[in-house]
Write a structure and sequence with these properties.
With 491 residues, the chain is α/β, with parallel strands linked by helices. It has 2 domains: 297 residues, Metallo-beta-lactamase, Chain A, CATH 3.60.15.10; 177 residues, Rossmann fold, CATH 3.40.50. Helix content is 26%, strand content 21%. The chain contains 13 helices and 21 strands. It starts with 6 loop residues before the first strand and ends with a strand. The structure holds zinc ion. Zinc ion (ZN) binds next to loops.
């Protein structure tokens, strides 16, 4: 090993697609850190029966291909047919064998970044934003327990922007970035050979773009040699040796913003033949949620969401620390209606009882309605997409004219909609619109982000067209490395 080769990177996911899994090894400090542990969501199976099925579908890597001892849990995997409390009881006195992975850093609560966590060895610390964890908890509380959302026993360590994490001498500075979900982070990793920056997913055109600039500022502050590093060997050690950078939209982009989404929605709701729009966006996209609530109020429509969505938003509304997510407040906003989830034999899940009780206590139970009651509404409305399956087909307001608006931020939603959802909707007689503001940086923003960070090397990930980085940076001093899966890169 030459002294130039102290840091090793290996990419187990996120190459020519999404699902980031990057192993960073500091060979001097003997530290092994995983940057995200996500799935290629294109390949996801709806209700997997076990980890083997997930590995066989190439959603997560095989343990034998991974240079980590006991990466996956031996004793805490969920087994179908049990309830969560039954499985919790079985796991109560169990523990996993030791692992040599020193930590997993999770950038944000999208499945292409965290999906692997339920399968992780319970001894491995998971470093995750305080609120990122809260979103994961809310998501899992609002869905039935399954193989891929069982978190019992995981070794969580939460952080906030401004914290410093020390993993066996490697110092990590998490800094918030703007993305299509709250609590998204980039990481500045101070290794024995210099700074490695991991962008996570980010954008520079969103309502909170200043947060992405905070990450750039922090890198510049550190790489210029702050007093924190005065004791370090010499200047070389505080160089930015590598930037691992997302490139979801390096190949095609448009100029868009949440403000434009709002403006376009307003245009669309004027002088129209439609009584309602079914809308689809990612539930955790708080900016989009706020846009719909604001529009609804301005034009006197209703916004109908699912009971699960109401529960999810309520949990996030009631966090003591997170001011920015208290609004829109699901209890206070009377333009929001909630469509009851109807289960077999009138059964109610615990979370359903909870959310109905909260509304009842606040004398707001009148805002609940059944799917079949929607047709009797006296207002036009946006209806949050549920599923174009049986309940919809049977209960959609047949005497009203509806259309579909896709405002989803999933990087591959276009293909997905075209092949699947849109054709189903067409069969039901729906026309569709697409109004979008992406969660990802545009090519010119990737350029700005990277040149301001100014690394020696840039590793494009989370992109189907990483080669385009080569052209984008060809007149800069930044060396573009196109990583291949399962190969070692020394930096
Ligand atoms: Zn994301």
């Amino acid at each position: 090993m030459s002294s130039e080769e102290r840091i090793k990177l290996n990419f187990y996911g996120g190459i020519n697609g999404i699902g980031n899994i990057i192993l960073l090894e500091d060979l001097k400090y003997e530290t092994k850190i995983l940057l995200d542990f996500g799935a290629n969501t294109k390949k996801l199976i709806r209700y997997p029966s076990n980890l083997d099925e997930i590995i066989n579908a190439n959603i997560l890597p095989q343990e034998k291909d991974f240079p980590i001892k006991n990466l996956y849990s031996k004793n805490f995997l969920f087994e179908k047919g049990l309830t969560k409390s039954e499985r919790d009881r079985e796991c109560a006195d169990k523990s996993d064998p030791e692992s040599d992975l020193d930590g997993v850093l999770i950038s944000h609560a999208h499945r292409d970044h965290y999906y692997g966590l339920p399968f992780l060895n319970r001894n491995i610390p998971i470093f995750i934003g305080e609120y990122t964890k809260k979103i994961l908890d809310a998501k899992s509380k609002a869905s039935a327990v399954s193989v891929d959302n069982y978190y019992t026993g995981l070794n969580w360590r939460t952080f906030r922007t401004g914290d410093t994490i020390d993993i066996k001498g490697v110092k990590i500075y998490p800094v918030h970035v703007d993305h299509s979900i709250p609590a998204a982070y980039g990481f500045i990793i101070h290794t024995s050979a210099g700074l490695v920056v991991y962008s996570g997913d980010f954008r520079m055109h969103g309502p909170l773009k200043f947060m992405t600039f905070d990450l750039i500022r922090k890198v510049n502050e550190l790489s210029k040699g702050n007093e924190q590093f005065e004791n370090e060997d010499n200047e070389r050690f505080i160089k930015v040796i590598a930037l691992i950078c997302e490139g979801t939209f390096v190949h095609k982009a448009s100029i868009e913003s949440e403000r434009r989404v709002k403006r376009d929605l307003k245009i669309l709701t004027r002088d129209i033949p439609f009584d309602y729009f079914i809308v689809k966006y990612n539930l955790a996209d708080w900016d989009r949620f706020r846009t719909f609530v604001e529009i609804t109020k301005q034009i006197g429509w209703k916004f109908i969401i699912t009971e699960k969505a109401a529960y999810f938003y309520h949990i996030l509304n009631t966090d003591e620390n997170w001011m920015s997510m208290r609004n829109p407040n699901i209890l206070d906003e009377d333009s929001i209606l909630i469509v009851e989830q109807e289960n077999k034999n009138s059964f109610l899940y615990g979370w359903q009882k909870e959310i109905r009780n909260i509304f009842r206590k606040n004398h707001k139970e009148g805002r609940f309605l059944k799917l079949k009651e929607i047709k009797d509404l006296k207002a036009k409305f946006f209806l949050y997409y549920i599923a174009v399956e049986k309940p919809y087909r049977e209960n959609l307001p047949r005497y009203l004219v509806g259309a579909f608006i896709s405002t989803d931020i999933d990087p591959y939603s276009e293909e997905y909609y075209d092949s699947d959802l849109l054709s189903q909707l067409r069969r039901l007689g729906f026309t569709s619109y697409r109004i979008q503001a992406s969660g990802h940086a545009k090519p010119h923003d990737i350029y700005k982000f990277a040149t301001e960070i100014n690394p020696d090397k840039i590793f494009p990930i989370h992109s189907e067209h990483p080669k385009l980085f080569t052209n984008l940076f060809k007149n800069t001093s930044i060396n573009v490395i196109l990583p291949e899966l399962y190969s070692d890169y020394f930096i």
